[in-house]
């Protein structure tokens, strides 16, 4: 049976790796520029081996078009911090989950006008039933909302509309 890794990875505690983590964690997501890859949980690990920085990132979706940009931005940030020979590795397993997002990141999403994911990622089991979720409007707070499209401005978001204030908004899907 597969075990789900449902928690964000902690920041390394040793000095050099922690410094690399801190630098990489500041890189902004190009699709939602109020979030860092640290906020998103896309940053999975940071190590220094033989003086060379190594960072691991995981995409929110396996086909996420922002990953090349994120990889380049992480490498540039590390080079500016003195790690010219840094490697940035993309890993797909375990798959990213919204459970890895920080509470600060969810707050930033809402302030930006995107409804943050609500709840934990459902664990799928044989015979499970899909249940509709209620998504609060990030503009007025109403729970009287409806999904317009399963896919919003990016694959990791759905497009909703508020029936109270009539504003459309993105919802960061629970994955």
Automatic annotation (TrEMBL):
Residue span(s) of domain MIP18 family-like: 19-89
Occurrences of domain PaaD zinc beta ribbon (ranges): 132-173
InterPro entries the record matches: Fe-S_Maturation_MIP18, FSCA_dom_sf, MIP18-like, PaaD-like, Zn_ribbon_PaaD
Domain of life: Bacteria
UniProt name for this protein: Phenylacetate-CoA oxygenase subunit PaaJ
Species assigned in the record: Terrimesophilobacter mesophilus
């Amino acid at each position: 049976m597969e075990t789900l890794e449902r928690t964000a990875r902690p920041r390394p505690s040793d000095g050099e790796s922690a410094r690399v983590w801190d630098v990489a964690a500041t890189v902004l997501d190009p699709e939602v520029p109020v979030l860092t890859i640290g906020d998103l949980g896309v940053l999975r690990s940071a190590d220094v081996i033989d003086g060379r920085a190594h960072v691991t990132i995981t995409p929110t979706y396996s086909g996420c078009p922002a990953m090349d940009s994120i990889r380049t931005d992480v490498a540039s940030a590390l080079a500016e911090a003195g790690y010219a020979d840094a490697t940035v590795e993309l890993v797909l397993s375990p798959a990213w989950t919204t459970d890895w997002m920080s509470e600060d990141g969810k707050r930033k999403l809402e302030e930006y006008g995107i409804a943050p994911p609500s709840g934990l990622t459902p664990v799928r089991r044989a015979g499970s039933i899909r249940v509709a979720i209620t998504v609060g409007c990030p503009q007025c707070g109403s729970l009287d909302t409806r999904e317009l499209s399963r896919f919003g401005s990016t694959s990791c978001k759905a497009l909703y509309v508020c029936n109270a204030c009539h504003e459309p908004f993105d919802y960061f899907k629970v994955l």
